[in-house]
Amino acid sequence: MAQSAILNLLLFSFMLFGESILAAKIEIHHFNDINSQLQSIKRGFDPDYETIPTPCGNSSTPAECEGGIANLIYHMNNTSPEPGATKKVRISTGNLVGGENGWLSVNRWDAFGKLLGRYYSNNGTVDFIQTFGYKEFEAGLARTLEYFHINTTKKIVLANVNCNDSGDYGDDERDFCKIREDAADFAGIGTVGVIGFINPYVEALSSPGRLKFDPIVPALKRVADNSKYKSLIAIGDGSLDIAKQILENVPKVKLVLYGRGFGATRNMSGEAFPMPYRNGWIATAGRYGTSFGKLVVDIDDISGEIKQVTGKLVHSDHVDVAQDKILEVQNFLIKVQALEDTKLGKSVFKLEGGTRCWRDECNLGNLVADAMVHCAYNAVENTPVDKPIVAIWHGGALFKDSVMGGKNISGMDVHRWLPYHNRAHLVRVTGEVLWRVFDLSGSGITASQNSAVKDWGQFLQVSNGLEVWYKQDGVDVKVDRIRILDESEGKPVMRDIAMNAEYNVVIPSFIKEGRNVYDLVKTAWKPVKDIGFDDVCLQNYIEALKMVTVGFEERIYINDPVSPSCDHPKKGGNTALTVFLTILFMCVIVGIAYVGYRYVWPKLTGRAPGEAQNFRNF
């Protein structure tokens, strides 16, 4: 009788708690920072020195290549299940889409949403939970929603988005607040949930519309304290420090899975996987799908809480069959290859882009800015402007590192240089505002991710017809002089800007929308015309040129003396040096002539040195 009562009690417990007892072990595959990387990439990619990895082809070998969406999916689908695990869940911390390889501007957000939703959930057979990183917002909130609505997963957790203080939210912001969840159930257990977070810097770095994001730890604690779940898994784009702060301050969180869009690339190097910390565990995986974490979460049968997390990091080595198995990937790659084969023109000089453009003048920046001027003049051909058009472009938009001199420029190069498919805008602005804009630009010269003024690539490249002098004092950088093209007297002349005058300037949507430091001037622009997509403008310009001859035409001067008496002062005090050398050379010539006249010629003619000569007799 006693045994029967015990069995009935156990049966009642199973019925009451459902899977909370049966699902004692759950297998997690977690990954982060894929950034739309379709193909595998060359091994040895170092994000400290390179802006984008080098993709591999199907003929590559595992010794040469790793990662990419196709290989990541292949390895997750074919890895052997963990013994005793009753269910499998896939979790991503975001940054699944990204522009820097150029594919996003080619294939668009909805196409990637369809692809990723289908394959990360293994055609709906595996639970897939994700949060968003800053890259999901980088083309604007409308495209974020487009990506989400075609994505079949429908489980987006983001607990620190502020949907309560939404007085100035528009339709897109309200739509986003409806689709995202503070927390989602984990594997149907009922006692364990997943909560998501995003670094609030996304408001400056990306384009989440008017969405506001609360500080991570207080937001997660508030949600956790009000949650029905006994244990929580926190996922998001952050860093090892943020992960530790969560475990220190949010007792319900037992596992933190973080992406590394904002953190150092090797900040868990040499640590155990997953890394034990306080009463929980921390794990992250490799960028671009180079690895994924394979974890087993043990759930206590009685309390329903997470009691143990074990696992390993699985590397996504290149597999030829992986890319052949995924038809959508192959279709995308056909488009990419067609653009690679499209020759737009040729570069005479090496075009330098990438990280150099984020701190200093680069000739790729010169080329892009000049292209926007060309595009603007074509756009207003039937309505001539009253003043010359110049352009400014933020260096953070330029990703591809370089194209060597003498090489063809392909259609795909343009997408890699300008990967975000942003729009270019012709606006009118006063000299006073333009001066302020370049002051803000100067903050990018010394800024970094760790400084008080964050570096989001705000340093501005300029077109022909603009010259800017910066003066640097430690970390403080200010504009010293700006000259702009003027044709008021019937001929082109470079003149100092007048604070009250208005000028025609082409700017990217990055500046027009007031992103990061340019929030201070977002209402100062007077719109004239939307001239189109930046990558289209650049492509048309290169096709018109055929031969790109941009070498290094200095337009930006940092810590160089301003010489108001000269129309075109040169960098590094070259004007003064040239004058000095010219005078020295002339003195030498005069000295040689004098010596010849006073001493050498008299000896040759038999006269006494210094004797007066009659030059008419020569």
Name of the CATH homologous superfamily of the largest domain: Metallo-dependent phosphatases
What ranges have pLDDT less than 50 throughout 5 or more consecutive residues? Answer: 5-23, 263-267, 565-579, 611-618
CATH class (first level) name of the largest domain:
Alpha Beta
In the CATH hierarchy, what is the architecture of the largest domain at level 2?
4-Layer Sandwich
By DSSP, the count of extended strands is 27
Overall mean pLDDT score?
A: 79
Strand order of the largest sheet: 6-7-8-9-11-10
Query: Which structural class fits the helix and strand makeup?
Result: alpha/beta
- State Rg: 31 Å
Task: Say what the CATH topology of the largest domain is.
Answer: Purple Acid Phosphatase, chain A, domain 2
| Global outline | elongated
Bin the strand percentage. Answer: 15-25%
Distance N to C terminus: 143 Å
Number of helical regions: 18
Major sheet description: 6 strands, mixed
Helicity, in percent?
Answer: 25-40%
EC number: 3.1.3.5
Catalytic activity: a ribonucleoside 5'-phosphate + H2O = a ribonucleoside + phosphate
Protein name: 5'-nucleotidase
Signal peptide: 1-23
Outline of this structure?
With 618 residues, the chain is of the alpha/beta class.
What does this molecule look like?
By secondary structure, the protein is an alpha/beta fold. It has 3 domains: 2-333, Purple Acid Phosphatase, chain A, domain 2 (4-Layer Sandwich); 344-569, 5'-nucleotidase,  domain 2 (Alpha-Beta Complex); 573-617, no CATH class. It contains 18 helices and 27 strands. The chain has a 6-stranded mixed beta sheet, covered by helices on one side. A hairpin with a 6-residue loop joins strand 6 and strand 7 (192-198). The protein is elongated, with a radius of gyration of 31 Å.
